[in-house]
């Protein structure tokens, strides 16, 4: 049977990697975004505004997907606005597709803020979950746009009869310019600035993160899990954590990242040094670096998302993710974390995004 994918957010880290994964295995693949990705061979671009139902209906008039992958979100000033806007995005796209009766499965990407709380109350002491986090943990008693997005999927599934899967990655490591949550590229830009200015590569986060265990999610491995869940009977109507499969300590990884760039690593010194402050006045520095090395993106804000990296690295607890559920159902992909970073750095250099 033909498999026709519609990826919402195909220009992002997850969406672009998912497009490559599906295209490589024979899927007909459409990529929807406000500014569609036109660099992936075989991906069929769809331009639409997810908050404009009329725009969506027109853009999807000739698209009848069997599988929908929701990998996009829009950051707002408050969690109430995050809920309103991001729930509407999910609701609008599924409503636009409902009359076609073609959708068999919908996959929604959320994340570990399902367990740690939303941006407004992220990982606060007193509301911290036991680790490793597991899919059966109940929702927190707080407003969270991830919960609102899930509820939109559940309601549409009940209405239209499709199956669903929810995917909860940790920090995503992968390449995408303009992404709002991009730790790998943020650290690459920070290390490049440190090298150019002769300063040490200072650990920005908490002692708990420096000394504790952690994990991350390579964009390539979540792409594999999304494709697996979409075509696996046992994975229907289930939520899955998704990380690389290994654990590490930042105290071990940080010097390795520094060595890749040839800079001095400075570890946790008892004080948090937020990247948002460290990079607040570095836009001219980056623009000068981009000019000197003829880089493709001179705008620091298009590459670095220090606010989100600070959220992750400043948490007061270690964070580990249990992967037993999908492992038991047959998903066995694995990715070594240091290679996630090194592969990304090499890609950024090859694409002239870092010197």
**From the coordinates shown, what is the CATH architecture of the largest domain?**
3-Layer(aba) Sandwich
The strand count comes to: 13
What is the domain tally?
A: 2
Order of helices and strands: EHEEHEHEHHEEHEHEEHEEHEHHHHHH
Strand content: 5-15%
Question: What is the overall number of helices?
Answer: 15
Order the strands across the largest sheet as they lie in space: 3-2-1-4-5-6-11
What would you report as the Rg, rounded to the nearest angstrom? 20 Å
Assembly category:
single chain
Overall pLDDT metric: 95
Name the helicity range.
Answer: 40-55%
- CATH fold annotation of the largest domain: Rossmann fold
CATH superfamily placement of the largest domain: NAD(P)-binding Rossmann-like Domain
CATH top-level class of the largest domain: Alpha Beta
Question: What is the molecular shape?
Answer: globular
Unreliable stretches covering 5 or more consecutive residues: none
């Amino acid at each position: 049977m033909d498999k026709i994918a519609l990826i919402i957010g195909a220009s992002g880290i997850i969406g672009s990697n998912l497009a490559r994964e599906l295209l490589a295995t024979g899927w007909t693949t459409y990529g929807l975004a406000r500014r569609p990705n036109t660099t992936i061979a075989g991906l069929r671009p769809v331009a639409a505004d997810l908050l404009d139902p009329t725009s969506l209906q027109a853009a999807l008039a000739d698209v009848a997907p069997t599988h929908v992958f929701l990998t996009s979100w829009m950051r707002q000033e408050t969690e109430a606005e995050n809920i309103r806007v991001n729930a509407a995005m999910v609701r609008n796209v599924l409503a636009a597709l409902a009359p076609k009766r073609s959708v068999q499965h919908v996959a929604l990407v959320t994340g570990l803020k399902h367990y740690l709380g939303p941006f407004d109350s992220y990982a606060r002491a007193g509301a911290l979950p036991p680790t490793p986090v597991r899919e059966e943990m109940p929702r927190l008693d707080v407003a969270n746009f991830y919960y609102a997005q899930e509820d939109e999927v559940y309601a549409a599934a009940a209405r239209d009869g499709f199956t669903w899967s929810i995917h909860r990655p940790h920090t995503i490591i992968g390449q995408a310019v303009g992404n709002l949550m991009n730790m790998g590229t943020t650290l690459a830009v920070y290390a490049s600035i440190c090298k150019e200015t002769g300063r040490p590569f200072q650990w920005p986060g908490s002692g708990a993160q420096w000394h504790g265990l952690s994990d991350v999610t390579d964009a390539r491995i979540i792409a594999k899990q999304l494709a697996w869940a979409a075509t696996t009977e046992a994975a229907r109507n289930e939520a899955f954590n998704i990380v690389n499969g290994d654990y590490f300590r930042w105290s071990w990884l940080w010097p390795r990242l520094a060595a890749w760039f040839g800079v001095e690593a400075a570890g946790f010194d008892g004080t948090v040094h937020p990247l948002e402050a460290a990079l607040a006045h570095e836009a001219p520095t980056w623009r000068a670096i981009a000019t000197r090395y003829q880089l493709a993106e001179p705008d620091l804000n298009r590459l670095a998302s220090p606010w989100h990296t600070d959220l992750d690295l400043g948490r007061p607890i270690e964070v580990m993710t249990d992967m037993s559920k999908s492992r038991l159902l047959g998903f066995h992909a694995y990715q070594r974390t240091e290679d996630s970073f090194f592969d990304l750095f090499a890609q950024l250099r090859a694409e002239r995004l870092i010197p």
